[in-house]
Give the backbone structure.
Amino acid sequence: MRIYLRHLLSAALFTAVLMSFLIAASRIMSPKNNTPDGGIVEPAANGILAEPEGTIDVLILGDSESYSAINPLKLWEEHGITSYCCGTSGQRLYYTEEFLHQAFRRQKPKLVILETDVIFREYPLPEEVIHRMNAAFPVLIYHNRWKNMKAEDIRLNAEYTYCNPTKGYYFSENVDPANPEGYMKESSETAPVPAQNRVILARMQAFCKANGAKLLLLSTPSTVNWNMERHNAVRQLADEWMLEYMDMNRMTDVIPIDWKKDTRDRGDHMNHSGAEKVTAYLGRYLSGTGLLKDHRSDPAYRSWDDAAERFRKETESKRQNG
């Protein structure tokens, strides 16, 4: 019995020492800024960390479909809506949930938009476990940062200064036409939603509700990723959880996507021309809900005017040099 207790105490002591080391090392090795050269992963999505507290009214989440189709600066220019896209390429829903919680630490969005392609992305359970371990102990991700660390990095508190100039939007004027034949063909079948994603989505819905935010499910136009089977699955989820669902793939009368001109990669993602159409409709819809305030006359949001002006000048310059 004594030997057993001694082994148990030794294991507990070892675990406590190991946890303390991981926590301390994580504080030191984690990037102390969110700049692209500061070592942080996904600097565009993490640009929200530097946005002034309580200024983002719409949070946009999802994979590359989200940051290709929705331009926050257009929402600002036309409606005074402040939004930020925390989309990342190939995003898993467990990572989406992480961005949701991170955003709400400093922001109080009234609306959370989830681009629905991410709901169908499968992954092995160990991948999620490893990701959550990395999130709990960032040293597991950033252990190689010691090679490039500076004296100012040896501090515990982070100071985020990088505001992404496009608020997470990916600008592309590349044109690679799609063949929409058979796209959104009528079907009564329902695409399977991975069980672990249903669990995470339920948690996200509960989190939004508890924090006073509305959750909107949004399917942006994509001939590659979307079909009626997926539409039916999301429609089912939305009805089950009483969520609003907008499928832009079935809204050709009000969002006239030209698949010869509005995609950068044969129908997978929108290019800037397609994003202009998607964002124009979304902005009109959001403005009409009465949920969001128009901040354009508020001097506290003047930086948004500056960001929109810079974006306009840079895009014009790219076209001229193009």
